[in-house]
Amino acid sequence: MTKSLQKLVDGVLSRPAYQSFLDQGGFEFMQSCFEDLKVPTLIVAGEEDKIIPQADVIKLSEKLPDAQLDWLARCGHFPPSEQPEELLFLIQNFLKHN
């Protein structure tokens, strides 16, 4: 992660509004928005994501009936910026098989 991206992430994580969102069940609400998906779904998460805990990503993938979860090494919350080639490979592979 670049220094400027790390600064942005740290800024988001330190905001009281972000913590309040999580404390009031914000992530659970977001998960509920996806529960009705009935199509193959690719979930890509960074192994070093400091914004969404890995346990929450796993829970989301388990709630979707046809989800594929892939983890990107050396990646935080912004896969298109941090690991663009690897992300492209995962998307192309997913589309090829679905």
Counting DSSP H or I runs of 4 or more residues, the number of helices is: 6
* Biggest sheet, spatial arrangement of strands: 1-2
The CATH superfamily title:
Alpha/Beta hydrolase fold, catalytic domain
Strand/helix succession:
HHHEHEHH
Mean pLDDT: 85
Per DSSP, what share of the residues sits in E-state strands of 2 or more residues? 5-15%
Labels describing this entry:
98 residues; alpha+beta; Rossmann fold; two-stranded parallel ribbon; 6 helices; 2 strands; AB_hydrolase_fold; hydrolase; FSH-like_dom
Walk me through the topology.
Elements: H1 3-13, H2 16-23, H3 26-34, E1 41-46, H4 54-63, E2 67-72, H5 79-82, H6 84-97
Short description:
By secondary structure, the chain is α+β, with helices and mostly antiparallel strands. The protein has one domain: Rossmann fold (3-Layer(aba) Sandwich), CATH 3.40.50.1820.
